Amino acid sequence: MTSRTEFSFFHPLRVRWAEVDLQRVVFNGNYLLYFDVAFTEYWRYTGLPDPLAQQAAGTELFVRKAQIEYHGSAGFDDELQIGVRCARLGRSSMTMAIAIFRADDHLIDGELTYVYADAHEKKSVPIPDAWRQRIATLERTPPDGL
Q: What is the DSSP letter of 21?
C-alpha cells in the first residue's frame, strides 16, 4: 500500500453531494475526476507550461492509461487529501502515481499515464529536458527513468 510519505504534493478536496450514489459513497467514476483535478493542480505547482501554452507550442499531454485500485470509499462531506507524484519518466511518457486519503485512512491508489505528443500529428515526442529537471527537483524520490 502507498504511504503518505511518498508524496511531496497534496491537493485537498471535499466530497460534494452530487458526487455520491444512493449508498452515500463516492460514485466510482468520480475518482477519475478527482485524479484529473489533482493532476492539474500538481502541474500548476510545477510551474511548467499549462495546457494552453502547450497547445500554442503545438504539443500536448494525452492520457494513455488510467488505473484505480479501491481500498475504501469516501462519502459525502469527507475531506480528502489527494497525493500526486511523478513515478516514472520515459522518453515521451510519464506515469503519475495518485493516492487518496481521508485523515489516516488510505482509500484509493491510482495511476495516470500521459504521452507527450505533437498535437496535430498525434505522435509522441520527447519530454523536454527542462521538464525532467523541474520534476526531479520537486519529487522526494526521483522518478524511474531519470
A: -
State the burial class of residue 133 (Cβ atoms within 10 Å of its Cβ: 0-12, 13-18, 19+): exposed
Radius of gyration of the chain (CA): 16
**pLDDT for the residue numbered 33:** 97
Low-confidence winner among 31-35, 78-82, 109-113, 137-141 (lowest mean pLDDT): 137-141
Q: Encode pLDDT of 66-75 as tens digits.
A: 999 999 999 9
Q: What is the mean pLDDT of the chain?
A: 95
Domains of the chain: 4-138 (3.10.129.10)
- Which residue in 90, 108, 126, 114 sits closest to 42, CA to CA? 114
Distances from the Cα of 19 to the Cα of 23, 31, 78, angstroms: 11, 9, 11
